[in-house]
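Long-time lurker. I teach an intro course on protein structure, and each term I like to show students one example going from raw sequence to a predicted 3D structure in token notation. This year I'd like something fresh instead of my usual example. Would anyone be willing to generate the tokens for the chain below so I can use it in lecture? Attribution to the forum is fine with me.
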Amino acid sequence: MSCPACGHALSARNAGDVTVDVCDGGCGGIWFDHFELQKVDEQSESAGEALLDVRRDPGVVVDPAERYSCPKCTDGVVLMRHFWSVKRDVTIDECPECGGIFLDAGELAGIRSDFSSEDARHAAADAYFKEVVDPLLDEERAHSAEELAKAQSFAHAFRFICPSEYLPGKQAGAAF
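-- Reply from a regular --
Happy to contribute to a lecture. Here you go:
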């Protein structure tokens, strides 16, 4: 398998019970198969320490704006780039097909220093969404309540204008 960032051959490295592919002697990136990153992403997970010192070649320069192709999927799937957490400190490249994740050199250290635990990361995400999304939802609820009140008002007025024998379902023997 080749490194998606620099094309150097990836080599296997054990980190506890996880075996990942590292660009040792190239750009220093790390490829994690689906769900492997979650086993080394916290400071309390000592297995991740072995992945913080991947040897880099200073002559290898990686363009951070370049989009990477998945090294595992053979059909040239482009990795999606997104933030790891709501702190927006670290961007990761994730394969939409196989779920693998590629981290550029130094990004694992950033992820491990972001939050002390998975619960802390989820709590920060909940707080962020409460701050950003809840006001939008409140605005939409108020707008919807206003629209509902208008519709109910119109229906109430219409009920007095139109006698009940003309309303669907109110006529004796009516088909509707």
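Some talking points for your students: Residues 11-116 form one domain. The chain has two domains: 11-116, 121-166.
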